[in-house]
Each structure stands twice: as structure tokens, then as C-alpha cells.
Design goal:
By secondary structure, this protein is of the alpha/beta class. Helices cover 36% and strands 23% of the residues. The longest helix is centred in the middle third of the chain and has 21 residues.
């Protein structure tokens, strides 16, 4: 699993530092002093071949001479020594190493490769190299060269920048914010963002995870881990390089629109990650998420002693999508009784500039009791009349009592004391009240909470592998694309595109290819006979954008006009682009729909995240208008609707004045079909439909471009190799009949199965639970079950079995691959009253077949020695069974696939 041995690295019982220097100003010495000053409670050893002691701490010459086996080896030695140190540590039995040293290089024959090889030989995990280090307050470990050690808390920080991690520590010290862990990952030689997301998602000490990202190496792994983590706790990211352009020049409009940062934005959105724009907003997010839970809704009540700042807060709230809370009749009566008649009488609740602590307490109490709001923001502008510090103290006391009385469902309280002294900040922070320098920051903090709740709801939706409403002719479509690639072409011809769209039930205007002027007139005459107007377009594999050479002429109504236009187009193209191959002209029926909207839909290929779906306002000025949104496939209708709603042109799809609304879901369905086409035909590199005309009757593609090429396998495992997000694998649904005629239905697990799992566990005996989890299990929390059901179908898979008649859940088998996608660890659990009927055997066969289809090399598992039934079944299935040398009560079972 991706978290394999990470606990040993991040919560070690013993540590050795290799490479500490006697020089006062050095990385090794700084790390040594930090470990010492943090007062690490476990065993600690210092290794240095040239010094018997450093800073008063005795050193040994090599790891072999330590009188204990260090779980974690911290390396600050020169790069050339790193592979040898890792090999020594592996021989001694260390779980892993933190490589602070830089300069290992990359590529074949590098120290980087040698370090990886040494670690894999012993199953070690590596953090770094070229990193700040790790800071784990819960175990008093500061194995870094940061200037300060953070306090203990419930935020985890994973950073690709050591400087950013150090800055967060300094900020946290000023705000009283603590961390469950800070990890600087450096060059990610082994442990990466995804591994650490998995780890902190399962860490009960962590309430929220903060990320600083510069680039993602393994997009599918990251998406898998981020989606799983975001379902159980907030994940917030700030990414640098927002203004960077795409990695390659794009030939299509969709390719040009899908710039690198826009794709990252779409990926974060799909993963359920909250993206913030800069460090200040990341700090504010940390302030909010580290102290309070998400509210039930987005209705915010604002209490203030200054009307202006209250109105500014309301403005920002509405702008960000929040709702100004109404005031219930009961709350209004209380406020009328408690406040002077000059109070605002509405939200924001302005209690006037001379408000003292007692007036704040009275108003806040009424708002906290009001069911018409989901959270309260308390604002204070300091005056000479009332003490801002006294008001802060009173507010914290009241909030403390309120939380004590409503432990399970206390609504969030946030604060902004404008120009507050440090003692006021400490008062509010000490009481666990998120507080900010301005009303704008406070409202943004509230909306971060709201967005997290919405994210959890969105992530519970599982896009199907194939929409049920249409069945494309994927075979015919593949033949079109394959023929073009075999012919050495990078672009489909217009008529081929029309047939491709027809295979996916996407309407396109009548389109014909004419090789010369005479044929163009003949095709046009057929269209004239049907009352159509004609448009001509140049055919050339070398001229992608036809309008660049005047290669499009509209509104042709007679044969003579067509003859003249065709001649003109061909002559102009040959003159302006003499090197271009000219194939003739396209003759199309010209669609005139005065009230239709021009849209662009398409597919682009991103070097990091694979296929991306693009939607926006179409036309020739599409890049200039730049009204677009991106999404990662696969899509269902709801995801497609969300993609559309994120554009300005979406408003034009609704009815206005005398213009009817576009046919419901007509555009969304085309997006779903395009996403399915990308899954079926990975040879499609880029795809434009521009424009797609949409009105009350439906949609019609007018022009399209399709770039093709040999498929590129970007991601490991089954499913579309060009998709960073795996679809729900409906192809693995099975109806099985067991040996006694018992019929069962087996399917991949879904997030909404959580209640089913809880009910299933009621039918499993404590003894069987102990055999499965290796410890007595008295309670299964929501968080625990959520981690089991929130699958990504990439690294983790689970099949649940249902009784064919009753529909009750009767068993589950799961598989989680390791971080390099070579082996998987399985686990299985059956209802105790249904064992011995062949269900276990059937589920094990299914998970073995699945592992083979994923390209895994081995399946392994841990089985208690006393679980003789499972051990015997493993032997019959061909598993090798060996005692675990470290755990005498456990057998390691392993099957080579």
C-alpha cells in the first residue's frame, strides 16, 4: 500500500542521524540541534565516521555500531554517500530514510537510481532528497533545518518547497496554530504527495491537510489519493506557476484553451481539493479548518459594531456564493428587547459604535440560538468607548459555553477584530475561534468551510463507465481513426469527422467533400433542391484554421456563386500556402439559426492529466473571449452540467427576452458523449466542435477538427490509459452461482454503500472481526467505514457480494496496490452465518482475476496463524504461505500472477 511503513518514518520509536557536521553553520548540525531541542522521546543515535562526538553527543562510525535498529535514518551526508548509507540501513532492518541531502541527480547511473535500488532491496521507504525535512510534534521529532518547531495541532502540511514549509511554521507560531505533521517532500524519490495524502487522511490527529504544489508527477495516483482524502477531511492546495503556459503549442482551439494551470484547476476541482490563490489565503484556510467544522449550510449572520464593515462583509459573502442569513421572528424579538432601538434591524446586525462587551454577548447569544443561520461572524472596529480586549474575552467565554452545550452540532463562530493587538489575537485563538485581520478574510474563511461541505457531497457521486441513454458505435468510430493513422495522417478529413460524430449520435450539418469545382457545384445543386443555402470550406491537411487563408465562403445560393467561390478558395489557398496539400473543398448545407448560441466543445491532451474536456463560448474569437471551463473525464450528466455552469455563456443557454431556452441537457449530453469517445478511442489527441449551434430544438455541429495519433499510455492499470480519473468499473459486475445453487450478485463498491457496510458488520462475530482486523473491534466509526467505501478504482478496489434473493450484503473482498503499482494487498470478510458455502472462494477468484487484469505481479496478505480456514484456501489457490519473521502470530501469504 502507499502508506506502507510510513508510520515508521513519521512516528518512529528510534532515529539515527547520519552526516551531522561539527561545523556550527551546516545543514547536518542544524538538524542535530533541532532533534535535540525538540526532545525526541525515542532512541536516538548519531553516526559520523570522523568525529567521536558532535555538540556533546557521542557518535559511532557506522550504523552497524549502533546498539539499536533505527526505524528512521535521517541522512545529511554528501550525496555520493547516500546509496551506501541506505544499503547499510536496509541491512540493519530500518524502515526508511529521510534524505535531506541534495545533488543525487537523475537518470540511469545516477545516485538517485542507486538510492532507489538500495531501498527496494530491503523494502525501505524514502522521503526526499533535497528537502527541509519532517516535523512531527506528536512524537517530539524535528528532523529538519527549519528555524522553529511547530506546536502540536490538527493540521498536516505537505510541501514541495522547504521555504514554504518553514514559512508556515513561523506563521503558525504567531497565530497559535498547531500541526499534526509537516513533511517537505523534495524530489519525491519514493514517498510522494499521494502517499502522504493517504497517510494523513487516515490519521485521526489530522483535521485538515494543506498542500503546496509545484508540479504533479503521477496524476492518476494523486487524483486517487486526493479524492479519497477530500471525502473525509478538507484538503487545501496552493499551486505555484499559475501564469505558466501549456507545455506545447496547440493546433486546435481546445488545445489552446486548455492551458496548464486551467487543467490543474480542473483536476483540483474534480479531486475535491480546495484551491487557494496564495499563501495568505492558505494561512486563512489553515486558520479556519484547524479550528471549526463545516456548517450545515451557507447562511451567515454577521454581528458588528460598524455598519460599513458589515455591509462590506455582506457584499463579499454574496459575491463568493454565500447567503446572508435572515433573522427569525423569535431572534428579532430578542434583539429588539436586548439592543438599543438604533440597531440595524437586519443582517448585518449592527449594534452601533458604542457597543460594549455586554451588548455583544446579548446579540451573539440571540444569533447562536437562531435556527435561521448556519454560522456567525463577529466583527469589531475598535473605538475609544469600549475595550476591544474586553469584548474579545466576553465573546470567547460565551462561545466556549455554547460549544460545551452543543458539542455535536455547534455552529461555527468566526471573528475579525480590525487592527487587533496581539493579545486579542491570542485570546480568540486560544479559545479556538478562527480570527482574521479583515472582514474579507473572515468571509473567505467561512466560504472555505462551505465549499468543503459541498465537495464531500459532490464526491459521493460516481460517474458511470457508460451513460445508459445511448449506445455508441465505438467499433465503427475506431475504424475511422485507425484508418487515418495507418495512412500516416494526423487529421481526420471532414467527411470522416461527420461519420465519427454519427457513431456517437452527435448531429452535424450535411457535409460532402468535393475534389474539384465541378463536383462542388453538383453537391451544391442537391442542397439547393432541398431549399438549403451552401457554405464552402477549403480541404487541406496543412491548413487547420480555414479562415486564416480566406478558406470559408458563406451564404451561397446559386450554382454560379458556388462555381466562383470554389475557384476563388482554391486559387487563394494555393497562392497564400503554396506548400500546403490542397484536397478540394467541403460543401456544407449552411445552417441559419438566428437565435442559436455558438459554443465550443472539445477534447485536449494534457501532458500531466491526460485527456481534458473543454466547453465554452465558440466562434472564431474563442481564444480572445476566453470564456471556457475544463473538466477531467469521465463525465455523467451532473458533471457535464457543472462544467457548463462554470462559464459565462451558460447564462445565454437559458431563456431571455424572445429567445427560448436551449433544449434541456442537449449540450450536456454532447459533453458526456465526447468524454465517452475519448475513453473508447485514446488515439484522439485533440478534438474541436466549433461552433456547436444550440437552441430550443437541440444541437448541431457546424465545423469540427480531430487530431489523431498512436495511443499514449499515460497511466498504469486498466481503464482508459489517457484518463487521470478512473470511471466506475461497471464491467466488473457479476452474477454468480455457487456450489449449492446459491445465486449472488457482485459489484464494485460505491461511496453510498456505507450504511450497507454498517448493517453487514452486525452479522460478523467478534471472533471473525478479530481475524480480519487483528484486534478486537468494538465500534466502527463513520470515518473508518468512509475510508473503506470511498474508492478510486485505480489503486484501490473492493467488490461486495449480495444475496441474489434478499439483496442483503453477504461479503466483501478488497485489493490495494502498492505505491509503484506492482503488487496488491488483499483482505476479505464474509458474514459469519454464511461461511462454508463457497462465497470466500468465489470472491478470492474474482479479486485474483481483477489483479491480473490490472497488470499487478503479485497479491499478498497477512493472515493470523489461527485462521486455518483462510490459510488452507490460500494454499489451494496457489499462494505461498510463510511465517512473518517479525510477527510470529502472522503468516505472509503471496501469489505470483
Amino acid at each position: 500500500m502507499s502508506t506502507y511503513r510510513l508510520k515508521n518514518l513519521l512516528s518512529p520509536r528510534s532515529v539515527a542521524l547520519v552526516g551531522a557536521s561539527a561545523r556550527p553553520v551546516s545543514v547536518g548540525r542544524a538538524v542535530l540541534e533541532n532533534i535535540r531541542s525538540a526532545e525526541f522521546k525515542g532512541q536516538f543515535g548519531l553516526v559520523n565516521p570522523r568525529h567521536a562526538e558532535i555538540g556533546g553527543i557521542a557518535a559511532v562510525k557506522s550504523l552497524d555500531r549502533l546498539d539499536f535498529v533505527p526505524e528512521l535514518v535521517v541522512i545529511t551526508a554528501p550525496a555520493r554517500e547516500v546509496p551506501g548509507i541506505i544499503d547499510q540501513a536496509g541491512r540493519r532492518g530500518s524502515a526508511g530514510a529521510l534524505i535531506v541531502s541534495a545533488g543525487l541527480g537523475h537518470g540511469p547511473g545516477s545516485l538517485h537510481e542507486a538510492a532507489i535500488a538500495a531501498a527496494r532491496k530491503y523494502g525501505m521507504r524514502l522521503i526526499g532528497p533535497n528537502c527541509l525535512g519532517i516535523m512531527m510534534p506528536a512524537v517530539s521529532l524535528n528532523a529538519s533545518f527549519a528555524a522553529h518547531m511547530p506546536g502540536a495541532g490538527n493540521l498536516a502540511l505537505i510541501s514541495q518547497s522547504g521555504a514554504i514549509a518553514a514559512g508556515m511554521v513561523d506563521w503558525a507560531a504567531q497565530r497559535g496554530v498547531g500541526f499534526s505533521g509537516i513533511v517537505s517532500i523534495g524530489d519525491q524519490i519514493d514517498v510522494d504527495l499521494a502517499d502522504l495524502l493517504d497517510y494523513f487522511a487516515m490519521d485521526h490527529k489530522t483535521r485538515a491537510i494543506l498542500l503546496y504544489i509545484e508540479a504533479i508527477k503521477d496524476a492518476r495516483k494523486f487524483m486517487s489519493a486526493a479524492r479519497a482524502a477530500a471525502r473525509v477531511k478538507p484538503v487545501v492546495v496552493v499551486k505555484s506557476g499559475r501564469m505558466a503556459q501549456g507545455a506545447k503549442a496547440a493546433a486546435t482551439h481546445t488545445g489552446a484553451l486548455a492551458g496548464a494551470d486551467a487543467v490543474y484547476d480542473a483536476a483540483f476541482r474534480r479531486a475535491g481539493v480546495l484551491r487557494v490563490s496564495d499563501l495568505r489565503e492558505l494561512f486563512d484556510c489553515a486558520e479556519t479548518l484547524g479550528r471549526v467544522e463545516s456548517p450545515a449550510g451557507k447562511r451567515l449572520a454577521i454581528l458588528t459594531n460598524g455598519g460599513g464593515i458589515g455591509v462590506l462583509a455582506i457584499d463579499r459573502l454574496v459575491e463568493l456564493g454565500g447567503i446572508p442569513a435572515s433573522i427569525s421572528a423569535d431572534a428579532r424579538k430578542k434583539l429588539d428587547d436586548l439592543l438599543p432601538p438604533t440597531w440595524s434591524g437586519a443582517n448585518p446586525v449592527d449594534i452601533v459604535g458604542d457597543a460594549d462587551a455586554a451588548r455583544y454577548a446579548a446579540a451573539l447569544g440571540a444569533l447562536l440560538a437562531d435556527p435561521d443561520n448556519d454560522a456567525v461572524l463577529v466583527l469589531n472596529v475598535q473605538t475609544a468607548i469600549a475595550s476591544a480586549a474586553d469584548i474579545a474575552t466576553t465573546v470567547t467565554e460565551l462561545v466556549g459555553k455554547y460549544r460545551e452545550q452543543h458539542r455535536r452540532w455547534a455552529k461555527p463562530v468566526l471573528a475579525a477584530w480590525v487592527g487587533a493587538d496581539q493579545n486579542i489575537i491570542q485570546t480568540l485563538s486560544g479559545a479556538g475561534i478562527p480570527n482574521y485581520p479583515t472582514e474579507d478574510d473572515a468571509v473567505r474563511g467561512f466560504m472555505h468551510l462551505v465549499r468543503h461541505r459541498e465537495v464531500v457531497e459532490e464526491l459521493s457521486q460516481v460517474p458511470p463507465a457508460m451513460p445508459d441513454t445511448f449506445v455508441p458505435d465505438a467499433k465503427a468510430a475506431r475504424q475511422i481513426v485507425t484508418a487515418a493513422i495507418t495512412d500516416g495522417r494526423q487529421w481526420l478529413e471532414p467527411v470522416e469527422i461527420k461519420h465519427l460524430l454519427e457513431a456517437y449520435d452527435i448531429a452535424m450539418v450535411p457535409t460532402y467533400a468535393a475534389t474539384d469545382v465541378k463536383q462542388a457545384v453538383a453537391y451544391a445543386n442537391d442542397m439547393f433542391a432541398k431549399g438549403a443555402t451552401v457554405v464552402l470550406k477549403i480541404i487541406s491537411r496543412d491548413i487547420v484554421h480555414k479562415s486564416d487563408v480566406g478558406g470559408v465562403i458563406l451564404n451561397l445560393t446559386t450554382p454560379d456563386a458556388v462555381r466562383a467561390a470554389a475557384t476563388d478558395i482554391l486559387d487563394r489557398a494555393r497562392k497564400l500556402r503554396p506548400e500546403a496539400r490542397i484536397g478540394g473543398v467541403i460543401v456544407q448545407a449552411m445552417v441559419v439559426k438566428a437565435k442559436a448560441r455558438e459554443l465550443i466543445l472539445g477534447l485536449a491532451d494534457d501532458p500531466t492529466f491526460g485527456t481534458v474536456v473543454v466547453f465554452g463560448r465558440g466562434g472564431t474569437a474563442v481564444e480572445i473571449i476566453n470564456d471556457k471551463a475544463l473538466a477531467l473525464p469521465p463525465l455523467d450528466l451532473q458533471l457535464a452540467r457543472d462544467l457548463i455552469d462554470r462559464t459565462r455563456v451558460s447564462r445565454l443557454l437559458r431563456a431571455y427576452r424572445d429567445v427560448p431556452a436551449v433544449k434541456p441537457d442537449a449540450v450536456a449530453m454532447v459533453l458526456v458523449k465526447l468524454a465517452q469517445m475519448a475513453a473508447d478511442i485514446p488515439e484522439i489527441r485533440e478534438f474541436d466542435i466549433n461552433p456547436l449551434l444550440a437552441d430550443e430544438t437541440g444541437v448541431t455541429a457546424v465545423d469540427a477538427r480531430v487530431a489523431v495519433g498512436p495511443p499514449q499510455r499515460k497511466f498504469a492499470g486498466s481503464g482508459p490509459a489517457n484518463f487521470a480519473v478512473r470511471a466506475y468499473p461497471s464491467q466488473w459486475e457479476r452474477r454468480l452461482e455457487l456450489k449449492d445453487g446459491w445465486r449472488i450478485f457482485v459489484r464494485p463498491m460505491r461511496p453510498e454503500d456505507e450504511p450497507t457496510i454498517h448493517e453487514f458488520l452486525r452479522h460478523v462475530t467478534p471472533h471473525d472481526l478479530r481475524l480480519r482486523f487483528f484486534a478486537p473491534m468494538k465500534e466502527f466509526t463513520h470515518e473508518f467505514i468512509a475510508r473503506l467505501t470511498q474508492l478510486d478504482y485505480a489503486r484501490a478496489m473492493a467488490f461486495i457480494a449480495f444475496d441474489g434473493e434478499t439483496g442483503e450484503m453477504v461479503g466483501v473482498v478488497r485489493l490495494h496496490s502498492d505505491s509503484i503499482y506492482e503488487s496488491g494487498e488483499y483482505a476479505i470478510l464474509l458474514r459469519s452465518d454464511l461461511k462454508g458455502r463457497g462465497l470466500g472462494w468465489a470472491l478470492m477468484q474474482l479479486i485474483i482475476d481483477y489483479a491480473k487484469s490490472e497488470g499487478l505481479k503479485t497479491i499478498s496478505g497477512d493472515v493470523l496463524q489461527e485462521n486455518i480456514v483462510m490459510l488452507e484456501m490460500c494454499r489451494q489457490l496457489g499462494f505461498e504461505v510463510k511465517p512473518d519473521p517479525a510477527e510470529p502470530d502472522i503468516c505472509d501469504v503471496r501469489l505470483k500472477l
